[in-house]
Design a protein that fits this description.
This protein is 62% helix and 0% strand. The protein has 58 residues and is mostly helical.
Length: 58
Amino acid sequence: MTATKTPKKKGKNILIHELINLGIINLYLASCFSVLITLNSLALFRYGIDGFNYGIKI
């Protein structure tokens, strides 16, 4: 029986990987919320309420 060694990730590599994942999640959430706020403003505009005073929120 031979023991197989798995390479250990160093702390710096783990940190970089987690920061990349965090950035991707933040971009995804920001884009989703921007779309929702824009759609909300468009729906309000349809009924004569000016919702564009707030601008696009990111």
